[in-house]
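Let's inspect a concrete specimen:
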Amino acid sequence: MRIFATALTALALVGCDTLKATSTVGVELDRGSKYNSWVARHTPVKGRVIRWPTRNIGINIKTEWAKQAVALTTGTGLNFVLGKKGDITFRGYSTARDKVGWSNFYWDNKGRIYKCDVYLNPNYFPSNSKAEVFAHEAMHCAGLNEHTNKGLMSRHGGSKVLAETKGYFQHLYSLPVGSRI
């Protein structure tokens, strides 16, 4: 059975908003890794590992800016595969929100992300980098439901993925899907 659940993220000129999923799952932290608290705090269901079943995550497009976006994620342990349909889908340009970009991701009751849709607002380009905005949204799609204080995954975006963000994804994808932490 699949549960409809969504996390909306939007990188705006003045920030990125996130609609948070809620859960009553208790958090039991294993102090074995400094990233367990990050995973507990930044996954959509607090205290539960929500992620794709594999580190190989398809993106349905193969544009030059999408290639640049994938290059920005180097060191995360994620392998975004351009031109592969069925995982992350670029739905195109939209002015439905006053945000630079936003994404909706969905997961089942076992904690597996199975779909993510990404939109970019054409009103904010070329003043913003499509590659940076798309990389930001793709990493939300990979399971980072919140923002960091600095860098590409901050509310205001940036051009570099911080070591802490890389460590978060490396640790998240070393844990079993759906497990409690």
Remarks:
- The chain has four helices and seven strands.
- The longest strand covers residues 113-120.
- The CA atoms of residues 27 and 47 lie 4 Å apart.
